[in-house]
């Protein structure tokens, strides 16, 4: 039996098919409710109290009878979305997205969920408003949600995925802002470039979670998954459509950022090329002048016209003529 401290972070709701709703349920009573096929059990576990060998882990193993490997997965991180199919239940790993205004990044929270014949169990390491919305719908005796565990699971998926689209819209606004800063200013600051690369990395990380999530929902829609009745599959298809839209938005933003970076790189290359062109033009102008002055600057005893009275002025006039001629030529060729 679990004491009061050990039940902290465990939210239990039992809804009987007769309509009786119980919110204060002792975990010791769970075996009786689990054996009653007319019951619908909602178990929401927040936190990782003691890890897989703590009270929460023992509840999952000893009371619900879940496989040891899935219990271990619930208390470790860095998974990708997945679904494991067992004879009596489904084990699903999903992720909730949250945009942190303070850290200016998207944070992810893993949500592990078991779906059985008459129960849904969720495990996550911090409180989530999405699951609180599911809880409120259960408490309000929502007929759709309380119809089956499959509908409760769908409501969890729907609540989580509904949070994705507003985050994608806000990220899209950030992408537009970065593009404006990148292309409006002639020379982007390091902060703008850092924001661009950080956002690209973040979008790639989100895509690595969104694509497997879509595949997970697709697996749950298969006719061979008996715990998801046919009448519930159309709702799961709606979740998959939302995920497809999210993936499309992520891909569009990544392409947008890559295109903006390519345009910026091209602009920088053109700017460098123009600078090199000007430097080449200047070197071209001074090349014949350097050649002439180099010849007449040699210290030989006899150089033609070296003793001519007007030799200096003649060389100066020749150099000026060549310089002006080169400038005119390069200007007509639009090199300066």
CATH architecture of the domain at 1-146: 2-Layer Sandwich
Question: Can you say what the CATH homologous superfamily of the domain at 1-146 is?
Answer: CorA soluble domain-like
Alpha-carbon distance between the termini?
88 Å
Helical content stands at 55-70%
Strand order across the largest sheet: 2-1-3-7-6-5-4
Number of helices: 9
- Structure summary, number of beta strands: 7
Q: Which regions are unreliable across 5 or more consecutive residues at pLDDT < 50?
A: 1-6
Largest sheet: 7 strands, mixed
Q: Quote the beta fraction.
A: 5-15%
User: Secondary-structure element sequence?
Assistant: EEHEHHEEEEHHHHHH
Query: Please, what is the average pLDDT?
Result: 85
Radius of gyration, taken over Cα atoms and rounded to an integer in Å: 36 Å
CATH class of the domain at 1-146: Alpha Beta
CATH fold name of the domain at 1-146, please? Beta Polymerase, domain 2
> What is the general shape?
rod-shaped
> Which structural class best describes the helix and strand composition?
alpha+beta
Detailed description of the structure:
By secondary structure, the chain is an alpha+beta fold. Among the domains are: 1-146, CorA soluble domain-like (Beta Polymerase, domain 2), CATH 3.30.460; 276-332, Magnesium transport protein CorA, transmembrane region (Methane Monooxygenase Hydroxylase, Chain G, domain 1). It contains 9 helices and 7 strands. The protein has helices at 30-34, 55-63, 68-74, 129-139, 149-162, 164-184, 190-220, 230-296, 311-332; strands spanning 10-16, 21-22, 39-46, 82-85, 90-100, 105-115, 119-124. It has a 7-stranded mixed beta sheet with strand order 2-1-3-7-6-5-4, sandwiched between helices. It is rod-shaped and about 125 Å long. 26% of the residues are buried.
